[in-house]
Amino acid sequence: MDDFREHTDSWGKDVAIAEPERPAATLCMACPVRRLCVGSLAAEAGTRLLRGMLAGRQRLRAGQRLDPRAAGPGVLHVVHEGALKSVAPDGQVRAFHFPGELAAAEGLGGLRDAGMVVALEDSELCAIRWMARDGGQTAAYQARLWDMASREIVRERGQSAWLAGLAPLRRVAAFLSLVALRLRVHGAPVGELRLVASPAEIAGYLGLADGATGEALDRLESRRLLERHGLVTCILRPELLQREAQRSW
C-alpha cells in the first residue's frame, strides 16, 4: 500500500500524493510512455538522479481538480495514465493532456496563469522536479524537460491557430484527428482511440457554440467516423476525419 501524504490544494479539493513504492529508476524503466518523458533517459541518467527527480505520483479521480502549483515550486506534472484538461480560472478549456505529456506547460515561467487541471477520467500523474532533489542534474535531463515543455506550448498554439480558421464541421473533425494522432504516438491501439469529454468541453476548447459542436459530432457519427457513449467519443476512422479537415485547404 502506498504511503499517502494528504494536502488540500487552493481549489479546495483533496489530492493524494503517493511516494513511489518502487525505486524511481524502476518506475521509469517500466513506464509504457517513458520514451516521451524524462524516463527515456533512465538507462543513462542513473538511479541516483532518477530517485531525486521523481517527487511522487498523484492519483486523481474523474472530475477531481489539481492546482499545478500545489506541489510547490519547481515541480512539473506528466500524465502517466488517463486524460486531463487544463482549465483557465474563468472556466475556459485551454488544452487536453494524454499519457506522456506535460500538463499545464504554459504556466511555466509565468507565460500565463496556470489555472488548474481536471481529470477527465481516473488518471495518474508523475510529479517531476525541475531540478533533482540533491541539486544534481545532467545536461540531457534539463534539455529533455525543456523539450517537453516547448513541445506542449508550440503544439497547442499552432493547433489553435489552425483550427480557428476552419468551419465548425471541419474544425471538430480536425481536432478529433489530432487527438487520435497523439494517442497513437503514445501507444494506444486503433481500437482504443477515445476522448472523454462532453460536447460543451469540446466546444469551449474549439471556440464553437455548443449547438454547432453537437451538430458536427452527430454528422460525423452518422458517417461512422466516430461513436459516442455518454461522455466517451470513440474515434473509429481517424484517417477519414483528417481527410474531412483537409477538404477546407
Explained architecture:
It comes from Ramlibacter agri. InterPro entries: RmlC-like_jellyroll, WH_DNA-bd_sf. This is Crp/Fnr family transcriptional regulator. By secondary structure, this protein is α+β, with helices and mostly antiparallel strands. It folds into 2 domains: 4-155, Jelly Rolls (Sandwich); 165-246, Orthogonal Bundle (Arc Repressor Mutant, subunit A). It is built from 8 helices and 12 strands. Strands 1-2-3-9-5 form a 5-stranded antiparallel β-sheet. Residues 1-23 have low confidence and may be disordered.
Topology:
Elements: E1 4-8, E2 14-18, H1 24-30, H2 42-45, H3 47-53, E3 54-60, E4 65-66, E5 75-81, E6 84-87, E7 93-97, E8 116-119, E9 123-129, H4 139-164, H5 168-185, E10 194-196, H6 199-206, H7 210-222, E11 226-229, E12 232-235, H8 238-246
Antiparallel strand pairs: 1-2, 2-3, 3-9, 4-8, 5-9, 6-7, 6-8, 10-12, 11-12
Helix pairs in contact: 5-7, 5-8, 6-7
Protein name: Crp/Fnr family transcriptional regulator
InterPro entries: RmlC-like_jellyroll, WH_DNA-bd_sf
Task: Find the structural class using helix and strand composition.
Answer: alpha+beta
Could you tell me the strand content as a percent range? Answer: 15-25%
Task: Work out the count of structural domains.
Answer: 2
* Main sheet record: 5 strands, antiparallel
Tally of separate helices: 8
InterPro entries: RmlC-like_jellyroll (IPR014710), WH_DNA-bd_sf (IPR036390)
Organism: Ramlibacter agri
Protein name: Crp/Fnr family transcriptional regulator
